[in-house]
Specification:
By secondary structure, the chain is α/β, with parallel strands linked by helices. It has one domain: TIM Barrel, CATH 3.20.20.70. It is about 50% helix and about 15% strand.
Length: about 290
Amino acid sequence: MRYDAGEVITAMVTPFNEKREVDYEKVETLAYQLVNTGSDAILVTGTTGESPTLTHEEEIEILLSAKRAVGGKGKVIMGTGSNSTETAVMMSKKAEREGADAILTVVPYYNKPSQAGMIEHFSAVAEAVDIPVILYNIPSRTGVNMSVDTVKTLARKYQNIVALKQSFGDMDTITDLKMSCPNDFAIYSGDDSLTLPMLSVGAHGVISVASHLFGKEIKSMIRNFKTGDAMTARNMHQKLYPIFKKLFMAPNPVPVKAALAYKEIIEDYVRRPLVELTKAERTELIFTLDSI
């Protein structure tokens, strides 16, 4: 494999205080906890980190805080995606300069580029940095799907385009990707509930939200599957499935922040336009959390 970020990457939330300012002390606390509870790497300033509402200065400081906390215990990946190619290139260069182990860059959202436009966009990012680049395909947020041929073209052309986060539950697409891309190109599930199905057709691991709470369990599920104990892996998948779904009962990362607040790890503040869970939603989430 040209680059291995591990099997469990946590898409980390960004802790805020009551003024909805970034709580950098809790960024460090959470990052340290994650790499000690099953996460091989953490991804900061992604969608789960509320990147649309962060300033570029906050994003860099979050990266630096996470790196201080993690040390050599895991990798720190930075989300540098933008619907502006120039901005994505700029932030990718900054991430590399500030010591990110890799970057995650999403299909440009809102402007809905063609496949040719995507190739130009990701080519510009890949040519601007030497660190590994993970592509991110999430049609439900971007409004457009990145095709297998586009991923194949990029993976074959650029050695530093090393992986894909796929948040699109079509197993045939995963099979097509595995058959089309280089053998050392890694595919990650972008949805916790799809991790086991994707593993069965060749995915390497997951970029997870639920691993904030159940990192060791998700890691064991993946390890059991890969070592031939499919039954135990399936049982863990079914055990965690209710919380996989409840963590998306409201826009991500609202539910996972509420769960982390219940565990007294961070506060559940989110930045507008997101809003915190209602009392009824919180009760429903906690009931599911306590039942696992």
